[in-house]
Specification:
The protein is an all-alpha fold. It is built from five helices and no strands.
């Protein structure tokens, strides 16, 4: 009986952690240009995403997705994200501290 209780607790914890892992994996796609967890290097030509207000992030991603905002890579990448993913990423990066000094 204790073993079953322990397995249930572990399964519940894993189920709760899974969405966080998926979101972190989704955000990791941005790291190549925007830095780890959105913290761009000091003199980067691309903006850091960490600490960016969620509303601003959403507006920019929707502009890239629709073609209203030009870019080299972002318009194509933005088209691959759903509205729910954009919202999740906006909240994820808004919750992180800003770029490294």
């Amino acid at each position: 009986m204790r073993l079953l209780a322990c397995l249930l607790i572990l399964a519940t914890g894993a189920a709760q952690a899974e969405p966080d892992l998926r979101l972190r994996a989704l955000a990791a796609n941005c790291a190549g240009c925007h830095g780890t967890e959105g913290r761009a290097p000091r003199y980067s030509l691309v903006p850091g995403l960490a600490g960016m207000p969620a509303a601003h992030f959403i507006v920019q991603m929707k502009a890239f997705k629709s073609g209203a905002r030009q870019g080299t890579v972002m318009p194509q990448l933005a088209k691959g994200f759903s509205e729910a993913q954009i919202l999740a990423l906006a909240n994820y990066f808004a919750a992180h501290k800003g770029s490294a000094p």
